[in-house]
Give the backbone structure.
Amino acid sequence: MLIAGTFDIVHPGHIFLVNEAAKIGDVYVIVATDNNREKYSGERPIIPEQQRLEVIKSIKNVKDARLGRSDNDTLKTVKEIKPDIILLGPDQKYDIQTLKNGLHRKGLDNIEVTRLDFYYNKYNLHSSRSIKDEIIKRYLKRKK
């Protein structure tokens, strides 16, 4: 079982994703590099990649984690791990068919791709973005 993401500010939704993946099998995680995060989203993570990787490696139910690649072939790491399943989070922007097509081009047709259909939003600050927005709001309020 493979999951991937930036994991910039780890929150309960990330833990939920890891635990859901662990119900299916051993969990391997690819942590996005700072450069790839910037390339795909337009902004660098707050937390540097090595620090994010260390945090993810320490989460219960994560068998192993590694950084993704900064080159244009992000599926090389998937090929190295050889998962049976890739589980996407409900808010990840990956299109399943595009990912399947990329896997096919790499000869990885045996990997199932699925998306977690439940968004964990038990708390108001349920995403890295909502946590960052709250920090900014409080900072601006304090500056007034």
Observations:
- DSSP finds six helices and five strands in the chain.
- The mean pLDDT is 92.
- The longest strand covers residues 62-67.
- The first helix runs from residue 12 to 22.
